[in-house]
């Protein structure tokens, strides 16, 4: 078993573990966002009730409640933006994993000597290459989408 094959296998395992850790971190953050959404929703409901029920309260009190409500809406919008970014990152991780698997399959076909390849092997190699190009194009679209979002936010 040549050294370069062991190195490739080790690097593939390392990158798979990195993707797994990133996926776990994203999942945790998505769960945190969900909990925060619920908390913000409850706070918003309370503030809305206060604003509706307390028509006799001083104007500065109502202005304070309105400002708090607007702050909650802004916070919720920021969380929604973050959630959207995380969902794009999840898609990117899936495509990255798919690309690694296709790379590995393609490498196994390409390492085979041309004289030993059957027509089925060559057809499978071409199909894998086609799938790999599709995955790379999808990843490129996601990256462009993220860049457009970033530029729009600026």
TrEMBL record:
Residues 23-50 form a coiled coil. It comes from the Eukaryota. The keyword Acetylation does not apply. Its main location: membrane. Keywords: Coiled coil, Membrane, Monooxygenase, Oxidoreductase. SMART domains: DUF3585 (SM01203). GO terms for molecular function: monooxygenase activity. It is found in: Membrane. Pfam families: bMERB_dom. This is MICA1 monooxygenase. Residues 13-154 form the BMERB domain. The keyword Oxidoreductase applies.
């Amino acid at each position: 078993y040549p050294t370069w094959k062991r190195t490739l296998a080790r690097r593939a395992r390392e990158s798979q573990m990195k993707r797994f850790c990133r996926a776990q971190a994203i999942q945790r953050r998505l769960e945190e966002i969900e909990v925060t959404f619920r908390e913000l929703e409850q706070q918003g409901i309370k503030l809305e009730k206060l604003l509706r029920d307390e028509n006799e309260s001083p104007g500065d009190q109502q202005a304070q409640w309105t400002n708090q409500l607007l702050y909650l809406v802004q916070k919720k919008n920021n969380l929604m933006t973050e959630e959207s970014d995380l969902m794009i990152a999840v898609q990117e991780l899936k495509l990255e994993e798919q690309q690694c698997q296709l790379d590995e399959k393609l490498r196994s076909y390409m390492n085979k000597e041309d004289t030993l390849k059957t027509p089925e092997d060559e057809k499978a190699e071409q199909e894998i290459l086609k799938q790999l190009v599709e995955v790379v194009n999808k990843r490129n679209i996601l990256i462009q989408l993220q860049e457009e979002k970033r530029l729009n936010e600026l």
